């Protein structure tokens, strides 16, 4: 039986990431001695938990089954070699690594293993977690291990590598481009890899990625990052696609492209670095706050947000300009960042790049603007010392 945490323990847990990991794992664990038999484990679960597992696998007639019938149907399903193979191919890299470990050792004891590393396996009844005597155990039941050994593991491993590579391309392209034509992604993949994919295979991979919870959807022949869909109706999505239609794609080499599969990755341009250094030096000394600011500014630029929206990122963090000079210098740095950020509306090109390669009408660079400097910073009298520190009166310096 788990006890409730008191207020002091709750605060400590929030401040201690290791304790948070452990508590998350305990919440999803079976409390009691570890079991290794699949049939015993399933029968120990509540009917609600069994029904949830059956729903994941779309087992027909589950709503009318008794608990024992559900347990038997689940056991038959997850030990079926064909079903197992399909589930194994859907695993990501961390899940496959854990699967291989459990196949050899059957049990892993780790109180702070990230829940995301085994949630997929847990939700499908391939792995079960137990919490006993202060320790968390991950168990792969004997029947599942036996069933997996009947499959062609070397072939499955090779297939999994191909699936994982296609998955990384899909996610990376959605992060770099926002929306990418299925045909274009297929062209990029096949140009960069010896073993080609068919259009049908790529679409299957996209649907599997969507099924895994990736923020993606298919719309009018495009793979769309769902960040684009926030507050957008279908007409606006179509307008967006019309805006990128016909523009050339920025296509990096494979190594650079696949970096974008990490949703936290972005290109740290010299312009972003200059802005970060300025903010740390002049506006905010908190390293973590500034790192989050730069992250959000980069995403806002990639999405084509306005300069006013970029300034709001400062305001929302209470990073204030002390004088008009700071406001103007920040806006100048932001303008440079904006013009050198890879943008979704430009198929991954920066405005500077697209200007250089565009045929016909060239996109305009964002110009330096004096937005809200007079409204967001304290007024400086014309005869007062200039806040830049020059020693001159404001009217003779930056107030000219």
TrEMBL record:
Pfam families cross-referenced by the UniProt entry: SEC-C
Top-rank taxon, per record: Bacteria
**Classification via InterPro entries:** SEC_C_motif
**Signal sequence residues:** none
Which organism is the protein's source? Paenibacillus rhizosphaerae
Upper lineage is: Bacteria, Bacillati, Bacillota, Bacilli, Bacillales
Listed name of the protein:
Zinc chelation protein SecC
